[in-house]
Design brief:
The chain is of the alpha/beta class. The two termini are 18 Å apart. Strands 4-5-6-7-8 form a five-stranded parallel β-sheet, with helices on both faces. Strands 1-2-3 form a three-stranded parallel β-sheet, covered by helices on one side. The model has no long low-confidence stretch (mean pLDDT 96). The protein is globular, with a radius of gyration of 17 Å. The protein is built from nine helices and eight strands. The structure holds zinc ion (ZN). The site of zinc ion has 5 residues, from loops.
Length: 242
């Protein structure tokens, strides 16, 4: 009755055998937000999985692709009403020229403008750009999930004050800074994600095994039993979805 599998950020469309991934998610009863990287990719899946209670496809516009595919912004706008789930969107300032940073920000701000006040759930990429992400989000109305956050600890506190959630993955647990970040996030704001296929063990085949690994880790840092942690984190996901 209480299933603890979840994945708040994964890319099912990047697997060759997408149907096998979907069948697996369904069999696992794993609540999943499948993000996309471009509006024309999202468009292929509209309505296709509406009967699947576990899978939600998100409309995305990845910051690293938005300069090249800027002409898809109008498609993004046109498709915005077809889903509550928006991602992967955001900013990526690693290896980016000032011109591209400004361009990414313009696209991101337009997306927020389309989505604010419309009951959306955003999954946001913020690599080396979380300060600008927070300033763009200042007046945004809706639910915010910061995915694979790698920024400063002080910006975590600001995000928590604003009611944002963080989706964390198994790879973050393998690094010192990742561990520090996880320790800074209150348990009632944590969600789990795989960011498959980009994380360890996910390249060839999708699996939900990462969830147990993270639950065990969080139980150990808070000295709580795993079941309590599982219930709490599952409740966070339900909170986001309602
Ligand atoms: Zn991703």
């Amino acid at each position: 009755m209480f299933d603890y599998k979840m994945d708040a950020h994964m890319h099912f469309d990047l697997y060759n055998d997408r149907q096998a991934v979907i069948d697996y998610i369904t069999a696992q009863k794993s609540y999943t937000i499948a993000v996309t990287n471009l509006p024309d990719i999202y468009k292929r899946y509209i309505g296709k999985y509406d009967n699947n209670p576990y899978l939600r496809i998100a409309l995305g516009f990845h910051p690293e692709l938005c300069t090249k595919y800027a002409n898809q912004l109008s498609l993004f706008k046109a498709l915005c009403d077809t889903t509550r789930y928006i991602g992967e969107i955001g900013l990526d300032y690693s290896n980016t020229s000032d011109h591209d940073k400004q361009f990414q920000k313009r696209i991101f701000d337009s997306i927020l403008n389309y989505c604010t006040g419309n009951n959306k759930i955003l999954s946001i990429h913020s690599r080396k750009a979380e300060t600008d992400i927070l300033s763009s989000l200042k007046d945004f109305e809706g639910k915010v999930i910061l995915h694979w956050y790698t920024g400063s600890l002080s910006n975590i506190d600001i995000s928590i004050d604003r009611g944002y959630y963080f989706s964390i993955n198994h790879q973050m647990i393998k690094s010192k800074t990742g561990k520090k970040i996880i320790a800074q996030i209150p348990v009632n704001r944590i969600l789990l994600e795989s960011d498959a296929p980009f994380t360890a063990g996910m390249q060839e085949k999708y699996s939900t095994n990462f969830t147990d690994y993270i639950y065990t880790y969080i139980s150990s840092i808070y000295n709580q039993d795993t079941d309590t942690v599982k219930k709490r984190i599952k409740a966070n996901f339900m909170e986001i979805l309602t």
